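Write out the bound-state structure for glutamine.
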Amino acid sequence: MTDPVTSTSLRTDLDTGGLDDPLVIGVLALQGDVREHVRAVTGEGVSALPVRRPAELDAVDALVIPGGESTTMSNLAIAFGLLEPLRRRIAAGMPAYGSCAGMIMLAGTVLDGRADQQTFGGIDMVVRRNAFGRQVDSFESTVEFAGIDGGPFHAVFIRAPWVESVGPRVEVLARVAGGPADGRIVAVRQGNLLATAFHPELTGDLRVHRHFVQMARAARAARPH
Ligand code: GLN
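---
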């Protein structure tokens, strides 16, 4: 999950059919499933750019924040000088999608985190790290996702967080159905920010990425020129 990637090796450019200004979706490339997310958004007709430096962040319209380990991601974001630039972009309305540790990075408040762990924030929610318990490090389940057609999702959870509580501006999009975690919130949206506790990049079901690309397109269309 943590092998280094170079920006040039992963950058994907598309034939944009004559459009000279394609949407550029960044994938935060500090650690995690960077390649899988790059592949998933590239399938949606955008240009994908791994982001590790502030200048790369400046070049993207929207950002995917992969899973991994949120404590490590926090350290690396500080080391790469990305913490404050990312907080600023997110606060200014850049669309972002966080999966698993990426969900934690978008949370206002983290429970069971390391004391000095930082987040980018943006979603008014409290998340609990490793919430599903040590015995069930990973599990798979079926979840209904509000606003995404095509039937329930096969959701893969890996040492996943859940959302303990949300503020009034947060839309709850999916909950666990059945089992000991019945009813726990595992997908949310607030404005241009989307987060899932599970990993859609691992299942080949691209509907969450497609949904996020649509959010990013709508956000760009609404931006003053
Ligand atoms: N347990 C990890 C964390 O706390 C998240 C796991 C994941 O992203 N698959 O950051």
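---
Confidence is low (pLDDT under 50) at residues 1-8.
Helices lie at 7-10, 34-42, 54-58, 70-79, 83-91, 101-105, 207-222.
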